[in-house]
Amino acid sequence: MCGRYSFALEDDLIWERFRVRVRTTIYKARYNCAPGQDLAIVSNEDPVTLNLFRWGLIPFWAKDPAIGNRLINTKAETITVKPSFKNAFRSRRCLVLSDGFYEWKKEREKKPYRIQMTDGSPFAMAGIWERWISPDGKIIQSFSIITTSPNETVATIHDRMPVILPTEDEQKWLGKTSETELLDLLKPYPAGKMTTYPISKLVNSTKNDSPEILEPV
Q1: What digits encode the pLDDT tens for the residues 95-122?
Q2: CA 72 to CA 2: how far, in whole Å?
Q3: Nearest 5°: CA angle at 104, between 65 and 79?
């Protein structure tokens, strides 16, 4: 699964890389993105603007928004059949913006690692989103990150990884693309373009959200 990541770019770098407008009143750098938080995404409904959606998908038909706590990830292998995900996959897709994600390796005790591009560049993870309306009219827009089998780099740490889209496929993911073509995008990112390193246990607590989390140990 993917249960924690970072996205800490300056506004001008976000524009340079993703070509989306950033409202500085709502965006801030995040070093320890966690489920339940409002985080940076680009949706197919508004592909030119960075928006904040809640991490943890709440299907439009849900009676209780707490279901989102269990739907932070979506398996690529079952996305077209699971009731919670299949409609969003067909109609409501998004880019989840990141510059690295974290996984815990099972050794004598769980040890956290940061996983990123070899050049440290930001990237987009494939996501789906939903709009949920409560009985009293409150609207919550939420998302889930799609995961797949790991490449050789990530496999040394964990048995799943987020689907990372090559830059040239990001707009295809957001566009009116056939289901077959979309499914072809849900594969492990090339291992040779990624690297990992151990980090401190600061990342274990969502109360910690500072650049120190990124430092190798």
Answers
A1: 999 999 999 998 888 999 999 999 999 9
A2: 8
A3: 45
Catalytic residue selected from 2, 33, 130, 170: 2
Domain count, the chain: 1
Q: Which residues pair with 39 in a beta bridge?
A: 53
The encoded tokens of residue 46 equal 């508004």
- Flag whether the pTM goes above 0.85: yes
Identify whether 103 is a catalytic site residue.
Answer: yes
List 10, 45, 94, 103, catalytic entry:
103
Known catalytic membership, residue 168 = no
- Could you give the 3-state DSSP secondary structure of residue 165? strand
Which residue type is seen at 82?
Answer: K
Look at residue 84 and tell me whether its pLDDT is greater than 90.
no
CATH code of the domain in which 85 resides: 3.90.1680.10
Q: 92 is in which domain, residue-wise? A: 5-214
Helix (H, G, I), strand (E, B) or coil at 57: coil
Kindly give the pairing relationship between strand 51-55 and strand 73-75.
Answer: unpaired
Q: Which helix (H) or strand (E) holds 170?
A: helix 170-174
Token pair in block for residue 89: 């996959």
Calpha distance 180→82 (Å, rounded): 17
Residue 111's closest CA among 200, 49, 187?
A: 200
| pLDDT of 24 over the 80 cut | no
Residue 185, classed as helix, strand or coil, is helix
